[in-house]
């Protein structure tokens, strides 16, 4: 998704019917609970990643598609709605892109504003995985959430590689 579109999405509220149907066709009650607590812009991003993986642009042959799409829909659940102000979301996006070292330097738990926003951005994979695990989400999906920002390593499986690629492009 283009940066401009992401910024516009920060101000919208609700998914349209078609997007909602896609989400509901993949997630059970616990998954929906997690999904619903994300902000609109994170929900929209998740749906865009899922749709990209379901499109012809990606070769998902050999991949376990259902957990992959669930993982796409839930990968950013560690970013809780209302926790980060929209201006800090924009700053975090810019810092992640242009000044990655500042993320660890400035990212502090419990501090106000931007520091906390950076903290959440850094820790959302493990936090999201913990939330999903607590609600009994499929371990394959939990693992996708947990590792979606890991550098590629010998444990990176096909589903994770596909998700990471789709996330980076959307
Ligand atoms: Fe993420
Ligand atoms: Fe993401």
Distance between termini? Answer: 4 Å
Unreliable stretches (pLDDT < 50, length at least 5) are none
Element-by-element helix/strand order: HHHHHHHHHH
What small molecules are bound in this structure?
fe (ii) ion
Residue share in helix: 55-70%
Largest sheet: none
CATH architecture, by name, is Orthogonal Bundle
Number of strands: 0
The average pLDDT score comes to: 88
Compute the gyration radius: what is it? 15 Å
Strand-helix topology:
Blueprint: H1 3-9, H2 17-26, H3 29-36, H4 40-54, H5 65-74, H6 86-98, H7 100-106, H8 113-134, H9 139-147, H10 158-169
Residues 75-76, 124, 148-149 line the site of one fe (ii) ion.
What's the short story on this structure?
66% of the residues lie in helices and 0% in strands. The chain is mainly alpha-helical and 170 residues long. Helix 4 runs antiparallel to helix 5, helix 6 packs across helix 7 and helix 6 (86-98) packs across helix 8 (113-134).
């Amino acid at each position: 998704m283009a940066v401009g579109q992401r910024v516009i999405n920060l101000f919208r509220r609700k998914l349209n019917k078609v997007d909602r149907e896609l989400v509901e066709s993949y997630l059970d009650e616990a998954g929906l609970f997690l999904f619903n607590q994300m902000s609109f812009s994170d929900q929209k991003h998740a749906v865009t990643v899922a749709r990209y993986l379901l499109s012809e642009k990606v070769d998902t042959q050999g991949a376990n598609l259902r957990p992959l799409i669930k993982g796409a829909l839930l990968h950013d659940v560690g970013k809780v709605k209302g926790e980060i102000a929209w201006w800090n979301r924009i700053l975090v996006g810019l810092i992640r892109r242009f000044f990655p070292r500042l993320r660890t330097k400035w990212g502090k738990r419990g501090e106000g504003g931007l520091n906390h926003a950076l903290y959440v951005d850094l820790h959302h994979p493990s936090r999201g995985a913990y939330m999903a695990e607590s609600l009994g989400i499929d371990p394959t999906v939990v693992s996708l959430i947990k590792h979606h920002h890991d550098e590629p390593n010998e444990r990176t499986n096909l589903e994770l590689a596909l998700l990471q690629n789709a996330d980076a492009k959307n």
